[in-house]
Write a structure and sequence with these properties.
- The protein has 274 residues and is α/β, with parallel strands linked by helices.
- The protein has a five-stranded parallel beta sheet with strand order 5-4-3-10-9.
- Helix 1 runs parallel beside helix 10 and helix 8 packs parallel to helix 10.
- It is globular, with a radius of gyration of 22 Å.
Amino acid sequence: MNAPEPAIATRSALTLYGEAFPSRMLIGTAQYPSPHILAEAVRASGAGIVTVSLRREQARGRTGERFLELIEALGVRVLPNTAGCHTVKEAVTTAQMAREVFGTDWLKLEVIANDDTLQPEVFGLVEAAKILSADGFKVLPYTTEDLSVADKLLAAGCKVLMPWGAPIGTGRGLANPYALKSLRAYYPGVPLIIDAGIGAPSHAAQAMEMGFDGVLLNTAVAKAEDPVRMAQAFAQAIEAGRTAYEAGLMGMRDMAQPSTPVAGTPFFDLKRGP
């Protein structure tokens, strides 16, 4: 008699603005050693969404056209971003240009306050989100873990929030897990994606175990010695973290709890034997 095959957990889809994606990993397209390695890393990640900077692609000139052809061949959704924008006017103008260039109303909205930390400028972020949402954009704002800012972004029309884990490119992981847990608990029905600061697959798994819906990363993959294998490692960590969250993690305790209870077990006198 053949042994039954082990049950395989059904992968739950990531749903953003009514569209389902099989992977909960989103990946950036900057800093890769070559277009070929970029393409292979995206495939290895299984990501259905890739972020692209309009300003970077404008700077590429005709090379940028070939880059867009490469991304189109991957069959993924392009998520343009407004990286490098410091004002509402800059962000709105860049978003409108990106819609024309990439043919999509999806947008990762960034308004940066400081060039050293790349921290979101939350006042301008909320204002730009309101303008762009009213203009038909599906806005995914790069924000902080602040609850009051989250409230204002949702009121502005955003249906997804992307709080940072740590400053962009630092690889420090989740710098403020308490605040992130509070954000997750406060908005149980809102898709939340950790964006920025993720440096290791364990960081991504931690975010997913906390109940976040996805992770967006770039540098940790692009700058790895082997970006393709690192993309695969992150994909596995994100899937494992989500599965663990859905399965229900055990609660933490202050005291030890034996896995084998003492009550009802026989005791032996080591000198006399049983």
